[in-house]
Structure formats: structure tokens, C-alpha cells
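quick one before i forget lol
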Amino acid sequence: MKAAALFFAVLFLSAACTQQDRYIAITGYAQGGTYSVKLNLRGENGIIGTDPEKVKEGIDSVLDAVNNSVSGYNKGSLLSRFNSGEKVIPDRIFRDLYRESYRYYEETDGSFDVSCAPLFDIWGFGFTSDSLPSPEKIRAVLAGTGMDRLADTLVTDSGGYTSAAMILKSCREASANASGTPDDVMLPELNFNAIAQGYSCDLVAGYLHSLGVNQMLVDVGGEIYCEGLNPSGQPWGIGLDRPVDGNDTPGEDLQGIFRAGPEPCGVVTSGNYRKFYVRDGKKYAHTIDPKTGCPVTHSLLCATVIAGNATEADALATYCMVIGFEKARDFILSRPDLEGCLVYDEDGQMKTWTSPALDFLSK
């Protein structure tokens, strides 16, 4: 069955731009889901000289590298080993995501925080299956989270290794004083799920750029990077799923469609309508506020952010879901480099807000 899937993974699309355009679609599996890449084989300097199957191999290699570096579900990844307290050699992907995550932590005043892995775990949305923690447990876990406890860059010892203890500011100070790591200090655990798929899109786009491709749409698990025009010669059309509980099939029930491009951009939607559970009639969704340690309860149903790259769009869409509709709207309007679409509940009615320049075709 896998061989059959590979056989049909590369499809040629009809093109309306010019006779020289050669659009193809490449699909595959990555990070527990699927990916889809549409690209024009005609680059700036004519048809690229790489066979489509080789392009797919390159894309798979990029996504495998991300999985082996920062997947919390891959028990052999650098991240899983780091979270267990093991010393690891951080690769470029791990270092990049840590640096970018620290930057967004500071930019969002702590509302975007990849050190909150234990909070997701105790609520059943992380790498374990716990749920409904007690207030005492939430307070105890909160005491060990927050990137302000950590160094702003990964710290290595003389052998080039790093460990969870080595990026703790308190442990670095203790080590400098020759007193070692305090026994009562909670070591950090990281979860890059709120940024890794957007980052993956940007890495795939970078690989395609290296081949000379300049018209593409990269979709990794629903996070998107796009650039240039589609086969019809128009900016890429992006469907926004209607954020209702049970809408688990992308594209089946759309809230609307908007255009993105032709300038390079990332497009990411974060929402609370697919990852949640209900206990005693109350819904608990997977967006956790790092400051309270609890799932958010505001009216914002989903947030779509269009930014200069997918890494930023991914992080800021998560940020918008943490802060709620009014603050998210004001944040997007304050940033001329961003566009956004927010779907929210108002007295039981689903409403849609879009930033002024967003080319929203229907809602």
C-alpha cells in the first residue's frame, strides 16, 4: 500500500499561466499527519533540473530531520532525550526553534511559552494522557515553567553538549558557585508543537528555493507557506475551516476562502474545535494560558494569522488564541506586517472579523 501511495504522490497539475509552466503536487506523511506541496517546476531561470521524485525525496529528508530533532512523540528525538534530562548535541533545527521561541516569549510577554510542556501533559494535551488536574497540581507545575527561568541561548559545556539543567539560569549560577544543581529545582521540559509545523513549512520552502522554485504552496499539517501564483495565475486560495466541534476533515465545511500571495507569506490557523474533551458538561480545549496554567475560556474560536513566514504565523496564531478576540484584533491591527482573520462567538452567533487588507472572498 505504501508503494502505491508513493507512486501517486507526484501529480502534474494543469497550468493556465503559460505553456512553459509545469505545476506539480507532491504529497506524503510527516509529523503524525500529511503534507502537500504544490509547486511550479519553472523557476526564475527556466525549468529546474531536478526530477520530481528527487524533489519529493528532498522534502521528505527535510521533514524527517525536523521529526528527529524536535518531535515530542518521537522518543528518540533530541527533544525527547532533552526532556528526559539526557545530555544531547543540539542541531541547527533545535537551536533555531529554541532561539525563535525565546524571542516570541519575550515579544508576547510570556503568552507564548514552549517551556509549558508539563502543563499540556497534566491537562491531557501533551505527551501524556492525564486530565483535569487539581488546583494544587497546576500551581506546582506552574512553578517549574516559564522561559524567563532559562538562558536565552542554548548553553554547552566544553564537550559541546547541553542538558535541561544547563539552560536553567539558577543552575548556571549554582554551577558557577561550584555548588552544583539544587535538588529542589524543577528541570525544564519543552514542547515546540506551537511553532514546529510552521517552521517545517519554512524549511521546505528554503529547500525549494535552493532548487530555483519561486511559486509554491507548502502545507504541513494545515500550516502553510505560499509564494507566487497558483496554476490559474492567481494568488493562492486558502480555505478557512468552520470552527465547530466535530469539523475534523479539513476543507469539508468552510467558513470562507481568502487569497494569499504572491509575496512570500506564512498562513496559520489555530483553534479549539479539534483538540478538546468534555468533562461534566464542560469543554476543555488544548490552548493553555501559560500564566494561569489552565485552558482558555474566552469567545475566540479560531485565529488565522498571515505573516512574512510560517514560523511567525504559527507562533502568533497561538498567541492570539491565548489572549482572546479583542486583544488579538488590536494586536493584528497594531502590526502593519500582519493580516488576520478571527472567528468568535457573540451571544451564541458565530462572527468573523478580518483585517482591512485581507482579500477575503467569502464569509
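fyi The chain has ten helices and 18 strands.
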